[in-house]
Every structure is written in C-alpha cells, then in structure tokens.
C-alpha cells in the first residue's frame, strides 16, 4: 500500500507548519531534568536485583501473563502485590491495571452511569478526559483549581436533585497536575464534596514517591485517604516501573473487574512486571534518603529561581514538576535546544498539548540532581530569556 489518506497527510502538514509535529526522541546522556523518575527507582540496581531474586526464590520462571487476568493471567503474585499496595496506602483494596492510561480509561468509561454527572478540572490529564468521553454520563469542566466555579456547578446539580432528579455526581481532579506541577486544596475539596454528597476521585500519579513520609501521596500525607471514592496510583513516575492501581472499596474493585473494559480485554502484566512493582513498593516503604533529597532539591530550585528573578516565569509549584511559561512553539523549542546543547535534558511542552500561549519548559526534579546542576540550568535559562 503506497498511498496515504490525503486528510491524514494534511493534518501532519498542519502540525509541521505550526512547529508542533511530534517525533520520538533518541536517548541521550544529558543531565536529567526531563524524566518522571523522581526518586531514581527506574535505574535502581537494588530493585532490579531483588526482583530477579524474588522470582527465582518463588520459582516463577514465566515470561508472560499468558492471557487476561480473567482467563489465565491472574498469577498469585498479583494478589500478593495488590494486598501490599492496599496496606501501604491504607485502602480497603487495590486493583492493578496495565498503565495509568488504562486505569483512567477503565474507571471513567465504566463507573459513572447514564444521567450521572462528572465535574472535572479543566487541566485533567488526557487519559481522564478520554475515559470521560467514553462514558454515558454528562460531563462538565470547572476552572482549574477554582472551587467557587465548581460549587456553582454543584449548586445547579443540587437544584436538579431537589426537583426529584436522581443521579450521582463525580468530582475529578489530580493531586499534582502533570503540566503545571501545582495542587488543589484537598481539604477544601473534600469538604465541598461532602456538602453536596459527591464521589471524589483523585489521580495521584505525580504525588506517589514525592509527598508523605514514605512517598505515599498527597491525600494520605494529609490524612484524607478515607474521604475519597477512588485514588489512581501510577507506577511509571516516582515508583520507576510500569502499571497503575485503583484504590477503593471491595465493591468498587468487584465492579471494575466486571465492567472496566481496559481491565477485562487485555493481557495481564508479566510476573516480572508485577514483581518489580512489589519490590519498588517495598523499597518505597523504607526509603528515606531519596525522598529527603528530592524535597531538598524542590526547595532549592524554588529558592534559586527566586534569587535569579525567574519566579514570574514559573507556575507556582511545590512538587517535582516546575514549569516556565514561554509562549510560542518556536521560541520554547529554541530555548530547550540551547539548554540541551549545554548538557541539560529539559523538554519543551508545545501546543496543542497545552493551550496556545501556554507553551512551557518543563523541569522535572529528582533526588539525584545536584545543587550545582540546578543552579547551572537556571543560570542558563536566565541568560536565554533575559
């Protein structure tokens, strides 16, 4: 087949004209300010070796799951790992999905029912929005971290309920937003959801490993874990491996097993993948140094950007994600290239991934970044933008 559909070619050409055509990057040896490996677990020889040893000690010599978890892929290691995760996060149950994308698509496409209402933060991740699009529920976005705007929508729902309409309300947000690095006021949000009898769902992908004494996430660090209907924990960031889990009640777990299509109709993770998740969680439970180093680096980064007069460029964040707004795809790509040419792997985030005019440099901080590296990359940024 030599031909390619003209409409698709035109869309590619449009992306190229807008300087927004995506291409797969090649691996590099630059100083890492781009990956989500916040604690360095992805490159941990300790986790790698313990995973291998665990599989050998338990005589698990299987390369693949062999099928979906409902057919032949639900090996015993799944139950062991899910029990550990539930205990770690002080949740009744945990259900592992193949990825954070699968978890969000599976949850939001199956849990909210026809005539239910989903109210979601306008900056929620694409996986949440894709799941919502697959749902039969009504959905409305509220302004980012704006609970006055959210309450206006909740008031409308309350009025409809008072007139005899029956429907559930799901309020959806993230504890740390992937493109801004900021967080909502979770205590205020919990209070609001309790007032209007809503089901609160929080994606904690970028909080796991970053917040809490043992990296347990922002909700748990604030003692709010029992105030939410569901938490989505993704393992490809702070945990350094792959997969995700939805935390919630036994009834929710049973429902997802029966109705979440991204869980039902896919081959399960291999025993090796699940063992890696278990070993990473075990390390997280006892980890102190990496978590403390990461927190110190976040604090130091914020201090340095203030001293260098860079603070106005950045979105307010106390997380490992720090974003400098530099409007225009061409301009932000140019500055990113200059930083990379000087040895620092900093990636530009372009429109349409973010709204036009909100293009940015995204700095991801890690436990293994040094103070000198942080100072140097910010000095370079200052020299390129001022």
Quick synopsis:
The protein has 386 residues and is α/β, with parallel strands linked by helices. Helices cover 42% and strands 14% of the residues.
Short key terms for the protein model shown above:
PyrdxlP-dep_Trfase_small, coiled coil, 7-stranded mixed sheet, 14% strand, pyridoxal phosphate, 386 residues, Pyridoxal phosphate-dependent aminotransferase family protein, single chain, PyrdxlP-dep_Trfase, 2 domains, globular, alpha/beta, Aspartate Aminotransferase, domain 1, Aspartate Aminotransferase, domain 2
CATH H level of the largest domain: which superfamily? Type I PLP-dependent aspartate aminotransferase-like (Major domain)
Question: Strands of the largest sheet, in order across it?
Answer: 2-8-7-6-5-3-4
Low-confidence sequence ranges: none
Helix percent band: 40-55%
Task: Report the β-strand fraction as a percent range.
Answer: 5-15%
> What's the overall average pLDDT, rounded?
96
Based on Cα principal axes, name the global outline. globular
Q: Class of the largest domain, according to the CATH hierarchy?
A: Alpha Beta
User: Mind telling me which CATH architecture of the largest domain this is?
Assistant: 3-Layer(aba) Sandwich
Helix-strand topology string: HEHHEHEHEHEHEHEEHHHHEHEEEH
């Amino acid at each position: 087949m030599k031909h390619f559909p003209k409409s698709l070619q035109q869309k590619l050409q449009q992306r190229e004209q807008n300087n927004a055509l995506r291409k797969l990057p090649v691996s590099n040896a630059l100083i890492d300010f781009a990956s989500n490996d916040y604690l360095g677990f992805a490159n941990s020889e300790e986790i790698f070796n313990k995973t291998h040893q665990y599989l050998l000690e338990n005589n698990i010599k299987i390369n693949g799951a062999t099928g979906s978890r409902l057919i032949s892929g639900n090996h015993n290691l799944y139950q062991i790992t899910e029990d550990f995760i539930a205990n770690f996060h002080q949740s009744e149950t945990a259900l592992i999905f193949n990825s954070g994308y699968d978890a969000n698509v599976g949850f939001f496409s199956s849990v909210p029912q026809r005539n239910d209402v989903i109210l979601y933060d306008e900056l929620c991740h694409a996986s949440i929005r894709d799941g919502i699009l697959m749902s039969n529920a009504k959905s409305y976005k509220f302004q980012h971290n704006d609970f006055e705007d959210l309450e206006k929508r909740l008031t409308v729902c309350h009025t409809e309920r008072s007139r005899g309409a029956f429907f559930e309300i799901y309020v959806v947000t993230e504890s740390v937003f992937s493109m801004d690095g900021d967080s909502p006021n979770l205590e205020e949000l919990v209070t609001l959801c309790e007032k209007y009898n809503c089901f609160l769902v929080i994606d904690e992908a970028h909080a796991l490993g970053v917040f809490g004494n043992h990296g347990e996430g922002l909700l748990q660090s604030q003692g709010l874990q029992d105030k939410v209907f569901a938490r989505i924990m993704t393992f490809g960031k702070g945990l350094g491996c792959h997969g995700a889990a939805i935390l919630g009640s036994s009834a929710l777990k049973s429902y997802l097993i029966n109705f979440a299509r991204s869980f039902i109709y896919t081959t399960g993770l291999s025993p090796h993948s699940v063992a890696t998740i278990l070993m990473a969680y075990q390390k997280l439970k006892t980890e102190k140094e990496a978590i403390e180093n990461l927190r110190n680096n976040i604090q130091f980064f914020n201090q340095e950007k203030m001293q260098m007069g860079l603070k106005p460029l950045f979105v307010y964040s106390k997380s490992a994600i720090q974003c400098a707004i530099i409007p225009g795809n061409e301009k932000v790509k140019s500055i990113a290239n200059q930083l990379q040419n000087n040895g620092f792997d900093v990636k530009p985030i372009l429109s349409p991934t973010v709204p036009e005019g909100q293009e940015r440099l995204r700095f991801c901080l890690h436990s293994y970044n040094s103070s000198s590296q942080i100072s140097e990359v910010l000095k370079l940024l200052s020299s390129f933008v001022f």
